[in-house]
């Protein structure tokens, strides 16, 4: 019985370390994270899950963080020929009422740009502010996590085409 309790306590503690969430009004932000980067990286992708429990849609319109001079909301897509492209989401990222939107490699994501060559290392914490059209500003911390070398979804943003004029 004691072993079961200790195992359950250890599981809960481990889950709390990996699952961090934030809330502002009807918007919940789950597990903001960034993959570790190489020293030469000039960009990094940020990922998270947005859930809107409210009766009306909201939109993530901006992200700010001191470590990156420019931050944009992007969508990665691969065309029928296998060419990957990123496009800036000019109007932000819509979060429909009662739904969740996941920002993940190969799809919608936060693009941290203009990094100065200091690598992001697994275990680092990056403070940022998410700004929603209706819910307002929300301070979050992006955990920097190890990149699995076999993770085919962890794209190298430096090799993708960028369809924005900023």
From TrEMBL:
<keyword id="KW-0732">Signal</keyword>
<dbReference type="InterPro" id="IPR007410">
    <property type="entry name" value="LpqE-like"/>
</dbReference>
<dbReference type="InterPro" id="IPR036182">
    <property type="entry name" value="PCuAC_sf"/>
</dbReference>
<feature type="signal peptide">
    <location>
        <begin position="1"/>
        <end position="19"/>
    </location>
</feature>
<dbReference type="InterPro" id="IPR058248">
    <property type="entry name" value="Lxx211020-like"/>
</dbReference>
<dbReference type="Pfam" id="PF04314">
    <property type="entry name" value="PCuAC"/>
</dbReference>
<protein>
    <submittedName>
        <fullName>Copper chaperone PCu(A)C</fullName>
    </submittedName>
</protein>
């Amino acid at each position: 019985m004691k072993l079961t309790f200790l195992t359950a306590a250890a599981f809960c503690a481990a889950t709390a370390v990996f699952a961090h969430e934030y809330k502002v009004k009807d918007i919940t932000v789950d597990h903001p994270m960034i993959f570790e980067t190489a020293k030469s990286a000039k960009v990094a992708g940020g990922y998270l899950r947005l859930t809107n429990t409210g009766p009306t849609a909201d939109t993530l319109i901006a992200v700010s963080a001191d470590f990156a001079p420019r931050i944009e909301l992007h969508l990665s897509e691969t065309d029928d020929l296998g060419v990957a492209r990123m496009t800036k989401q000019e109007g932000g990222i819509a979060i429909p009422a009662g739904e969740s939107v996941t920002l993940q490699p190969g799809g919608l994501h936060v693009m941290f740009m203009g990094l100065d060559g200091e690598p992001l290392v697994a275990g680092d914490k990056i403070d940022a502010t998410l700004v929603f059209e209706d819910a307002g500003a929300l301070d979050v911390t992006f955990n920097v996590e190890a990149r699995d070398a076999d993770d085919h979804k962890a794209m190298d943003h430096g090799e993708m085409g960028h369809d924005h004029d900023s």
